[in-house]
TrEMBL record:
InterPro entries: GldB-like (IPR019853). It comes from the Bacteria. This is Gliding motility protein GldB. Pfam families: GldB_lipo (PF25594).
Amino acid sequence: MLAVAVAFAITSCQKEKENIWDIKVETPAEKVPITDISKEFFDANVPIEQFKEKYPWFQGSVKDEDFIKRKNNPEEIKLYKEAASKTDLNKLATDLTELFARIRHYFPNFKDPKVYTFSSSTQMYEEPVIYDPQQGYLFIDISGFMGEKNEYYKGIEEYFKVSMNQENILPKISEAIAFSAVSYDRNSQKFIDLMVFYGKVMMLQDAFIPQLPDHLKMNISEKQMTWNKANEQNIWDYFVENDYLFSADPRLSERFIAPGPFSKFYTEADKESSPQVGIFTGWQICRNFFDKNKETSLQEFLNMSAGDIFNQSAYKPTL
């Protein structure tokens, strides 16, 4: 059974591990350029045809008449202006310059994408960052980062709102790029495979944004991350005792990996638990692997199977 009693104990007395990813990386003097598409879109002095010619892909499948209505919609203009007022593009450019430099350190073939910010009027709150490595584009929906208590977010689930703050922009960008670097084997559907897949993504988060706290890397609250760390052994024991590790039951993904208000252990502890504990556990397995295999490169690690990573991690958390 998952123990609620230990929910907020422990971590303060644990010794901090050395952060092997927090290394100095040479950063270019010139900042990454950022283009605010919505600034031009909502500018009354920019004709719609001129805008479409400059950004032919931005309209997508939206009909011309609807596209024009959106351009002239006072509510959408108001929302965009609020989002823009909260977004420091100069700071974002600085952060992206360092992020891209770190990614290039580990992946020398990485090329800086063209960066665009825009406002979807909160329609893309579930996925506010889109990275397309083939086209070399990075799109950031600034309406998805106006602050979790923002009035425009009424009706959005709390577990999404917790990562809709300005401090979540960089980790979500890093995460989008990390997902593009991790191969997903559709033939490997055991729970341990899924956990290690997400664990690989989280290890890239460690490498790409080592200076940020763990809760931001995982898109949860600080309180929820504290719960995870306090209950790490309890979570693991629960998975082992219920023979979940090598189960191919698809419901385990919905219970322990998919976004939600909490994880579904089917105990009285559920509502006190952190969501996505399967991702957290996969992350700790991968961290344990690197603790024991410090000479392994990220590329070698990403090419390894979940089974090999798990076995070589010798993961067994203790209080």
